[in-house]
Design goal:
The protein has one domain: Aspartate Aminotransferase, domain 1 (Alpha-Beta Complex). It contains 3 helices and 8 strands. The longest helix is centred in the last third of the chain and has 18 residues. By secondary structure, it is α+β, with helices and mostly antiparallel strands.
Length: 173
């Protein structure tokens, strides 16, 4: 079990990591999608109900991706808490069903270590900051609850509730 920097413990994700298209773009999950859509439907309904969050088409992802856009405050406290504009996360459409989101670097590292995520392929190249991860599609309702906690952490990060992120300069996309 890993521990996020300021959150609670991150339970280790059971089983092997899914296959993804990394290092290619678009960054997508290729297997281990849920067989029952209930977990994904619950996750979407829950995260789009966060205060100040509106659903919009993603400004950076594939067609059909559903962006979580923070309508609160200004993103100036931590620009690395956003994927683009005020979008801090997005849910990929079927058949992928993974999501990209931002977390403080130490939390992103803990989530990756626990098997829930991987870096976006542009993080190692410096085109994106080490706050951007792909979180794997939840396969069950229990996994969806863990992923929902990660989305809440990302939302809190975008609201400047987790403190400023000190990251090296990165190439703008």
């Amino acid at each position: 079990m890993s521990r996020t920097d300021r959150g609670g413990p991150v339970t280790t994700r059971p089983g092997p990591r899914p296959r993804t298209t990394a290092p290619d773009i678009p960054h997508q999950q290729l297997d281990q999608q849920p067989e029952d859509p209930e977990a994904r439907e619950w996750l979407a309904a829950t995260v789009f109900a966060l205060p100040g969050v509106v659903e919009e088409p993603s400004g950076i992802s594939v067609p059909g991706a559903r962006a979580l856009v923070n309508q609160r405050g200004e993103p100036s406290c931590c620009p690395t808490a956003f994927l683009t504009g005020r979008e801090f996360a997005h849910l990929h459409p079927p058949p992928d069903l993974s999501l990209h989101l931002t977390l403080p670097t130490a939390e992103a590292e803990a989530v990756i270590e626990a098997g829930w995520a991987e870096w976006h392929p542009w993080v190692p190249t410096g085109r994106l900051p080490p706050t951007v991860v792909m979180v794997y599609a939840p396969r069950t309702r229990d996994e969806a609850a863990i992923v929902e906690e990660l989305v809440q952490r990302s939302w809190r990060f975008s609201n400047c509730e987790l403190g400023p992120e000190q990251t090296p300069e990165f190439e703008s996309h």
